[in-house]
């Protein structure tokens, strides 16, 4: 079966690239001209929604799998875009940008280029299923589909609940100067990122039920978001930020030892696991404690002396042993 509507290519990838570039460039010009940073994340989330809806409408088939995937992306995008827009309106500023890198600067432009790549890459599995020119798109929903949707739903719930828990915590004046360790944050240091990662793997699993040939290459979508959050703009930046803020507090270091970096686990179970297992399976890597090591290698401050933290306290990972990362980043600081 062939698609009746083809724009640039049968899978609409070229069209989606043009739409994404046009949308991100437009938002960049507005944000740069007015030095306005409140629409950055909103522009990303709504771009996902637009691509999913556009490709389904242009494809014109509306098979159950396509509808469920599109609705999933719309729900995710509405929730995340709305939450991030509301959060930045309340906080008043995006801490990723300052006056120097707002406006028509290369650094600010690079952010929007990267956001366009993020949107296109992560959207690719859904775009392919919505617009593919093959009869397999209409195969009945099966076990693979429901496993994927189940993982997506679990990830969405975890991300939504953890975002709300942290937002409530940070907006309570009694918690000023503290790190969030309530609810899901008591069993994972980054539960929102865990939710974000697994929901996109769930989407990919559902899409894979009808993949043929080169469509399998769209695995770069969930891989991209996983690597981004683990190595670039997610966990590393927030671990560094939290370590700088709270690294001289013994109770904070104890929190890092007791609480899983990413995968939610009871503290009693996590604490009993060998460090090698944590590093290989649970992403507890030395790079996530590099700021603690810097603190320990510098001359002790009065705060450090008072807290009893001395030189060499945090060598290596959160458990104090030197392990490098195996095979060798949308959140706010703890």
From TrEMBL:
> Which residues are listed as membrane-spanning?
12-34, 46-63, 69-89, 109-129, 141-161, 193-213
The answer, when asked if Membrane is one of the entry's keywords, is yes
Write out the biased-composition intervals (Basic and acidic residues): 296-305
This protein's GO CC annotations? membrane
Residue segments, region Disordered:
296-334
Give a yes or no for keyword Transmembrane helix in this entry. yes
What name goes with this protein?
Uncharacterized protein
């Amino acid at each position: 079966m062939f698609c009746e509507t083809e724009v640039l290519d049968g899978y609409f990838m070229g069209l989606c690239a043009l739409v994404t570039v046009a949308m991100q460039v437009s938002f960049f010009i507005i944000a740069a001209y007015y030095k306005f940073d409140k629409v950055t994340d909103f522009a990303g989330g709504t771009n996902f929604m637009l691509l999913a809806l556009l490709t389904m409408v242009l494809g014109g088939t509306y098979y159950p799998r396509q509808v469920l995937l599109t609705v999933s992306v719309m729900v995710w995008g509405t929730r995340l875009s709305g939450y991030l827009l509301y959060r930045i309106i309340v906080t008043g500023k995006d801490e990723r940008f300052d006056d120097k890198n707002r406006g028509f600067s290369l650094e600010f432009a690079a952010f929007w280029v990267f956001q366009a790549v993020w949107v296109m890459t992560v959207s690719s599995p859904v775009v392919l299923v919505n617009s593919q020119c093959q009869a397999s798109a209409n195969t009945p929903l099966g076990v693979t589909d429901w496993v994927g949707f189940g993982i997506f739903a679990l990830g969405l719930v975890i991300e939504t609940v953890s975002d709300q828990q942290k937002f409530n915590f940070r907006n309570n004046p009694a918690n000023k100067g503290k790190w969030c360790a309530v609810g899901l944050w008591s069993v994972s240091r980054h539960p929102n990122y865990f939710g974000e990662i697994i929901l996109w793997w769930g989407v990919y699993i559902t899409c894979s039920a009808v993949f043929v040939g080169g469509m399998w290459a769209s695995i770069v979508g969930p891989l991209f978001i996983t690597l981004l959050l683990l190595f670039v703009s997610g966990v590393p930046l927030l671990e560094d930020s939290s370590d700088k803020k709270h690294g001289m507090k013994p109770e904070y270091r104890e929190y890092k030892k007791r609480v899983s970096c990413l995968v939610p686990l009871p503290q009693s179970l996590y604490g009993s696991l060998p460090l090698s297992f944590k590093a290989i399976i649970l992403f507890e890597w030395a790079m996530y404690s590099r700021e603690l090591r810097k603190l320990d290698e510098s001359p002790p401050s009065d705060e450090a002396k008072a807290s009893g933290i001395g030189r060499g306290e945090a060598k290596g990972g959160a458990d104090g042993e030197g392990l490098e990362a195996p095979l060798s980043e949308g959140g706010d600081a703890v």
